[in-house]
Amino acid sequence: MPLGPNPAHRARPNLVEHEDWQLRVAAGVANDNLTPRLVPSSVQAVWADDDRFTHDTFASAAWSQGQKRLELSATLRYWTMPGGMERTDIIDTAASMGQTYRFGSFALSGTGIVGVTTTGDYAGAAVQDRWHGFSGMGRRLGSTKGNSYHRTPLQDRYDGERRFGLTLGGDTSLSLNLLGDHLRAEAGVEGQLAVGKTGLSYVRPHAGVDAHYGVGPIDAFVAQRFEATRAVTRDPTLQQRGGYELRRWFATPESRVGVRVGQLEGGMLMRLNEGGTGFHTSAVYIAGGLP
């Protein structure tokens, strides 16, 4: 499972057991331009930075039956070096199978995950340049004209190699439902081993709490999650300055708000210290299920 803000991996265990398979799809984007100026400069809040983990695009499809869950997900992430011209595009794909066991108000969930990661030139610089030209903000390739934020062009220097790796991992967590299921607390640990030229190997304990309240078909929810991660990688492009914090622990708080109307869900989340860089990213997403 990739690190990052893909909210598909934050789904609650099923509260209602269905005999037939239920499909839920989700998609969204994360970008440093979505991060509001709500945190002080002492923790290095950045607006329109276009450095480090500057953009994610993610999508997933999950099928559930009873307390079983199958999921396919993909994340495209753009990383750019602060103060340099280096960059890489990261594509993470994953397939997972999970099972939840209920014991009264408690739920024990376990998930096995297998995936493929690749890094290199996947036209990320060109896509980012076109978007910045269309939106009128952000760096452009080879030029600082019209750039309100930087005196340097958009990063465009790939190292010339596409790398591939296989990832194997799992996640287990214990949750407790309170107040008639309006409040849930959970804690668990997640791990991944990367085999090949790229991919992250990591261990990540996590804990969180979420609350929701509904009126008719409308259900609003808030969630707070805390992760502590220690990661390593063989990929030299992911070891560069401004990339993932490696071989030491880093903490990532995540806040999420959203609304569900029937089978449709939309929301926003913000992650501080993304990848251990000290900088932040926010995501918006939409998800929907078939009845």
Describe the structure.
- The protein is mainly β and 291 residues long.
- It is 4% helix and 55% strand.
- It has a single domain (7-289), classed as Lipocalin (Beta Barrel).
- The longest helix is centred in the middle third of the chain and has 12 residues, at 124-135.
- 37% of the residues are buried.
- The model is unreliable at 37-47 (pLDDT under 50).
Question: What topology emerges from the helices and strands here?
Answer:
Elements lengths: L21 E10 L20 E14 L2 E13 L6 E17 L2 E15 L3 H12 L27 E16 L4 E14 L3 E16 L2 E16 L16 E12 L2 E8 L9 E9 L2
Per CATH, the superfamily is Outer membrane protein
Biggest sheet overview: 12 strands, antiparallel, barrel
Main sheet: strand order: 1-2-3-4-5-6-7-8-9-10-11-12
Unreliable residue runs: 37-47
Structural class: mainly beta
CATH topology: Lipocalin
The CATH architecture name reads Beta Barrel
Helix content: under 10%
Mean pLDDT: 85
Strand content: over 45%
- Please compute the radius of gyration using only Cα atoms: 19 Å
Total of domains: 1
Classified by CATH, the class is Mainly Beta
**Strand and helix order:** EEEEEHEEEEEEE
- Shape label: globular
Distance between the termini: 27 Å
Number of strands: 12
Number of helices: 1
